Give the backbone structure.
Amino acid sequence: EAGVAQSPRYKIIEKRQSVAFWCNPISGHATLYWYQQILGQGPKLLIQFQNNGVVDDSQLPKDRFSAERLKGVDSTLKIQPAKLEDSAVYLCASRVAARVWGTDTQYFGPGTRLTVL
Amino acid sequence: DAKTTQPPSMDCAEGRAANLPCNHSTISGNEYVYWYRQIHSQGPQYIIHGLKNNETNEMASLIITEDRKSSTLILPHATLRDTAVYYCIVRTTGNQFYFGTGTSLTVIP
């Protein structure tokens, strides 16, 4: 079974530029998550999708961050314009959404490392 | 906001059991405790999870206290490849997974 795919793996941009990250979840996984992981910290949830609908985006800085999952499969996360403090690893995870709650888990992709200069 | 508290770092001798503690004193009745680990430059990897009862799988054991305010992850025979950051996580009923700052485990030869 293929895992969660993310691209690019690395990205370097200057502040005020725009950037987009792509995620392809595990086939059949209804739930998709984007996390931000700043160096030395644990992953912080940015947004959670169930199919193509947003379940939770309370921690997404909506003035500059946006995300979509139009067909309920792939997802993109965009930052426009980027700030220095956005330098982090952006992780995508997916979960099957099992019928019996608590019997499933989320699987992570390798992440995209963003450096903002 | 993180719902878990873990020591920042621990050492363990190779071949010995590694016991990683976690406090989650505000956990609600239906919220699960999950453990993941993260090796440098990789995404977090699932280890084990539980609600009330102790759990065991091929990777580890999870001991949850009766009041559910704390838990311990046990790696029975630590190897050098177990060196990683270990995260104790609370999964909410809304299916959000809240990571803390984790414990950096170093397995010493």
